[in-house]
């Protein structure tokens, strides 16, 4: 099932003036970040400024966020809170109906003009996963798609992720517009189920820093295994990453930004 909305109809509350919020980092191509913010676990009020600082350090034009929660008046949409602080636009996707006070899902933040927005519930539907896409015009005038998703989480769930990957690739437009995909894919790129993604995309960090291809993006200090499961994937025929880094991998006092680390990548066109 796909829900498609034109920006002006779907996002009436967006402030396009927010595009002027942060200065452009490089007009030659977009800077992108991805971050699983761990919804409201831990001490969210203490973590919020650390998440914000991590995203400011990324200085990204487009940010993919995963594990976003809103819970009525008690917890406004976390992605909207971050977007407001960063001066960016926000789109949110969730399998939870829009009229429910508690909703959980993914978000894309952008300081680039959004031309179009689309999202989909990923198969199998009982895994409650979504993918989302915005079409933007970059500082150099090109039209680019940015997609964001969060795949099935268990290490042994490769078959479920394989279905989600197949559905995602079938759903993404095939109209020649270049694409950058962010997300918590819950698997290293070398896993067998990731082969269709490897066939279509390159990964920014392993391109710029091959020696960091196995560096963990899960926070082992919070009990996770050491594995890189958060990725920024790009069309190598359209982009070349010139900078890539893992961010948010240090605590402030005894508070960590999240149980994941963030990634950023800066691209130029090819």
Characteristic key phrases:
270 residues, alpha+beta, 7-stranded mixed sheet, 6-stranded mixed sheet, 20% helix
Topology overview:
Layout: E1 2-6, H1 7-10, E2 31-36, H2 44-58, E3 62-71, H3 78-86, E4 89-94, E5 102-110, E6 114-122, E7 129-137, E8 143-150, H4 158-171, E9 179-184, H5 195-200, E10 202-203, H6 204-208, E11 230-234, E12 239-247, E13 262-269
Parallel strand pairs: 2-3, 8-9
Antiparallel strand pairs: 1-6, 2-13, 3-5, 4-5, 6-7, 7-8, 9-11, 10-11, 12-13
Helix content: 10-25%
Note the overall shape. globular
Largest sheet: 7 strands, mixed
Radius of gyration: 17 Å
Mean pLDDT: 91
Order of strands, main sheet, comes to 1-6-7-8-9-11-10
- Number of distinct beta strands: 13
First-to-last CA distance: 35 Å
Number of helices: 6
Contiguous low-pLDDT stretches (5 residues minimum) are 1-27
Strand content: 25-35%
Structural class: alpha+beta
User: Helix and strand string, N-terminal first?
Assistant: EHEHEHEEEEEHEHEHEEE
Description of the structure:
This protein is an alpha+beta fold and 270 residues long. The chain has helices spanning 7-10, 44-58, 78-86, 158-171, 195-200, 204-208, and strands at residues 2-6, 31-36, 62-71, 89-94, 102-110, 114-122, 129-137, 143-150, 179-184, 202-203, 230-234, 239-247, 262-269. The strands form two sheets. It has a seven-stranded mixed beta sheet with strand order 1-6-7-8-9-11-10. It has a six-stranded mixed beta sheet with strand order 4-5-3-2-13-12. The N and C termini lie far apart (35 Å). The model is unreliable at 1-27 (pLDDT under 50).
